């Protein structure tokens, strides 16, 4: 609860929290109510301006833009959350193993992580998604695994520092097994740091998904902001206003996750607490 | 220092090997018969067989890998199955566009972002410092293709200063048009990079400003400006150089997107097209080249950081 209070103390924290809440609510709303069928082509209603009937207007095929943006939010949120979850698991498992396993094995894992971090993950993700006709899962795996490797290095460092604390020594001396110590003492201590990082991974995933679907590498059947922008690009000189809403959706969602991550870091870092 | 360079060099070589294995495996993991996919659905069996033999797909994987690597080490990236030309020469032609694009946008982003980042740190409690910080957050959240589209609408469609997309067919033989068609792409990439850079420069500078040596320098009577130029910049430069090394990877991914926005026939456009065509040799060659660029720059940046910072240089680990 103190974290929540610290989070809402700064205006960036409130803004981040608000933006992420908007996206969550939009997705929930889209599950029960979408004003128009986002895929229905209505030739008589091409390029309609903003109105009570079409909140964001319509596109060149007469499809309702608000409905498209609303439904596209699902894809964005699924990819963001799935990428963050995969990154969390990969980072936690690799990082903890590197910290806990015998020195030789741990160092080998650490070395592998160093090697993988150096690789251009986004380029590889792009190739992977393109080759496998990327489903949402492929996209999330590519982004999640790539970011997870970078997380592993941070997790390892944090875990190793926790392992030297006295309460860990006390736990070990009183007979706590390594697994128990890690689950009971190490994980809870690195969790705040991990959540901060995962929020930033989610932001990265929103941008990456938008870019991949803009390039047309994700399945056509999946509604997405990136794909909307791609199809609006050819008419951008006549109807520049139409790109505003899907564009704004991407920017505000990414901004929300980034601000939330930054504010969480400030709220959970005891060194910064009360610094103001 | 020497020990560090040697160890970092070993890491570079290992990473190169892992990268090449990864790229190789990625393409072999593809579902279905690769030769049949490349030949297309209507190809006669003889054609499929010919492609299989040409690519060496009928031979053991180890042999295929070693042969590919043997060629690459001699600068031979194989021959494209689709166009029949040498992969290396096609990559060189595309680099003539992508290379200047990447270098120019990096230079522009540094020239703009470093002064702005320092400014935002020094004036962090003033409205303009806060505004710069907020703007950089928005800039980071902007997908690069959206920035590109906005620039096209304003500077190409409305004002007509630059062509909205494309690259002159004569390439650099027509330098005026070539440069003009690269201006908007360079600005787009520089903006995306610059936003990230501003944040890092700002936090690196903030770190330095709070150091004891800065207070001591001021106490000896130096003005703020002189203290910062003499002691601050050098200390702040290390994390900034490191982040440039990390950024090159996302920059190359950005290039793929930006070349699509502006229809520039560079490496990125070629890669996306080749993946669609299942042009195996070209895809694996291009991805390997991009990876090598990222890895080598990472190495150079790490060594540079050590050279600049004596504390890192003397550290044993």
Protein architecture, described:
Chain A is mostly helical and 276 residues long. Chain A has a single domain (3-275), classed as MetI-like fold. Chain A contains 10 helices and no strands. Chain A has helices at 2-9, 11-32, 65-100, 103-118, 121-131, 136-163, 166-173, 178-214, 225-233, 244-268. In chain A, helix 1 packs across helix 10 (244-268), helix 4 (103-118) packs across helix 6 (136-163) and helix 8 packs parallel to helix 9. Chain A is elongated and about 75 Å long. The model of chain A has no long low-confidence stretch (mean pLDDT 83). Chain B has helices at 2-28, 34-39, 45-55, 61-73, 87-122, 127-141, 144-158, 175-209, 212-219, 224-261, 267-277, 280-308, 310-314. The model of chain B has no long low-confidence stretch (mean pLDDT 84). Helix content of chain B is 79%, strand content 0%. Chain B is mainly alpha-helical and 317 residues long. The longest helix of chain B is centred in the last third of the chain and has 38 residues, at 224-261. Chain B has a domain at 96-313: MetI-like fold (Orthogonal Bundle), CATH 1.10.3720.10. Chain B contains 13 helices and no strands. Chain B starts with a helix and ends with a helix. The A-B interface holds A 12, 111, 114-116, 118-124, 126-128, 130-132, 203, 207, 210-211, 214-215, 217, 226, 229, 233, 236-237, 240, 243, 247, 250-252, 254-255, 258-259 and B 11, 14-15, 18-19, 22-23, 26-27, 30-31, 137-138, 140-146, 149, 152-153, 157, 164, 249-250, 252-253, 256-257, 260-261, 271-272, 275-276, 283, 287, 290-291, 294-295, 298.
């Amino acid at each position: 609860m103190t974290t929540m209070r610290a989070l809402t103390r700064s205006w960036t924290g409130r803004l981040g929290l608000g933006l992420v809440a908007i996206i969550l609510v939009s997705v929930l709303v889209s599950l029960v109510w979408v004003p128009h069928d986002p895929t229905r082509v209505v030739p008589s209603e091409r390029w309609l301006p903003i109105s009570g009937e079409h909140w964001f207007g319509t596109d060149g095929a007469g499809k309702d833009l608000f409905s498209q943006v609303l439904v596209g939010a699902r894809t964005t949120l699924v990819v963001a959350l799935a990428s963050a979850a995969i990154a969390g698991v990969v980072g936690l498992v690799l990082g903890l193993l590197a910290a806990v396993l015998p020195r030789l094995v741990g160092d080998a894992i650490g070395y592998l992580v160093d090697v993988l971090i150096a690789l251009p993950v986004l380029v590889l993700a792009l190739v992977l998604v393109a080759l496998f006709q990327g489903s949402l899962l492929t996209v999330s795996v590519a982004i999640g695994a790539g970011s997870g490797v970078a997380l592993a290095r941070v997790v390892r460092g944090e875990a190793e520092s926790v392992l030297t604390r006295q309460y860990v020594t006390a736990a070990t001396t009183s007979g706590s097994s390594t697994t128990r110590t890690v689950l009971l003492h190490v994980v809870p201590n690195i969790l705040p740091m991990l959540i901060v990082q995962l929020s930033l991974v989610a932001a990265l995933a929103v941008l990456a998904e938008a870019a991949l679907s803009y390039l047309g590498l994700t399945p056509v059947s999946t509604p997405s902001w990136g794909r909307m922008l791609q199809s609006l690009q050819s008419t951008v000189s006549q109807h520049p206003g139409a790109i505003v809403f899907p564009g704004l959706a991407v920017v505000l969602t990414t901004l929300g996750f980034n601000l939330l991550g930054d504010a969480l870091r400030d709220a959970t870092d005891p060194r910064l607490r009360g610094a103001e | 220092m020497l020990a560090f360079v040697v160890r970092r060099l070993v890491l570079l070589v290992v990473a190169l090997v892992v990268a090449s294995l990864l790229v190789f495996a990625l393409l072999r993991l593809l579902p279905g018969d690769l030769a049949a996919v490349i030949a297309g659905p209507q190809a006669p069996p003889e054609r499929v067989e010919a492609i299989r033999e040409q690519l060496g797909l009928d031979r053991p994987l180890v042999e295929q890998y070693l042969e590919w690597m043997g060629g690459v080490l001699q600068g031979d990236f194989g021959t494209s199955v689709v166009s029949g030309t040498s992969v290396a020469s096609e990559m060189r032609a595309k680099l003539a566009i992508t290379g200047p694009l990447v270098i120019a946008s990096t230079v522009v982003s540094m020239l703009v972002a470093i002064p702005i980042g320092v400014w935002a740190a020094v004036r962090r409690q003033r409205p303009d410092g806060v505004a710069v910080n907020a703007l950089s957050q928005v800039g980071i959240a902007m997908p690069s293709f959206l920035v590109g589209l906005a620039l096209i609408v304003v500077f190409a469609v409305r004002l007509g200063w630059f062509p909205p997309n494309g690259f002159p067919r004569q390439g650099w033989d027509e330098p005026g048009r070539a440069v003009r068609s690269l201006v908007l792409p360079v600005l787009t990439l520089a903006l995306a990079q610059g936003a990230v850079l501003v944040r890092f420069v700002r936090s690196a500078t903030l770190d330095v400003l709070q150091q004891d040596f800065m207070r001591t320098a001021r106490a000896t009577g130096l003005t703020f400006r002189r203290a910062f130029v003499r002691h601050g910049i050098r200390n702040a430069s290390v994390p900034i150089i490191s982040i440039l090394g990390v950024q090159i990877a996302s920059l190359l991914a950005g290039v793929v997107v930006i070349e699509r926005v502006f229809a520039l026939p560079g490496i990125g456009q070629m890669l996306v097209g080749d993946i669609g065509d299942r042009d195996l040799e070209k895809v694996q060659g291009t991805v390997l080249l991009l990876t090598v660029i990222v890895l080598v720059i990472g190495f150079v940046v790490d060594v540079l950081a050590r050279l600049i910072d004596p504390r890192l240089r003397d550290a044993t680990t």
